[in-house]
Design a protein that fits this description.
Elements: H1 10-25, H2 40-57, H3 65-76, H4 80-110
Helix pairs in contact: 2-3
């Protein structure tokens, strides 16, 4: 470890603190599917696996794979996968908002 020359400025300290916050926030946070859609999970997983096999059989890959899978899984599930995905997006937003509010409260408490 090297000794630092002189005192660090408030700006440098603030910058380092901000970088540490960003590094901490860049971690992955898994948000589950809402409970009311939990039963759909296994059925949708089966549809995903079938659609992946179909994509492989038709040599669908690269940029074409995601739209293909979304369409086929939605068709196979009778639209249930779309409902689950929308619920998951809403749940992610709610968890993100809760975290943001709590971080803001802590930041305000420190000032």
């Amino acid at each position: 470890m090297h000794a630092l020359p002189g005192k660090l400025s408030d700006g440098v300290i603030a910058f380092v603190a901000a970088v540490l916050v960003v590094v901490a926030l860049c971690q992955v946070l898994g948000v589950p599917t809402p409970n009311e859609y939990a039963d759909e999970g296994d059925r949708i997983e089966d549809h995903i696996q079938q659609s992946l096999a179909e994509a492989d059989a038709h040599n669908i890959s690269g940029n074409a794979i995601t739209p293909f899978l979304l369409k086929r899984v939605n068709e196979r599930s009778g639209g249930a996968s779309l409902s689950v995905n929308i619920a998951l997006i809403k749940n992610n937003a709610a968890v993100g908002a809760t975290i943001a509010v709590e971080l803001a409260k802590r930041t305000q408490a420190q000032t």
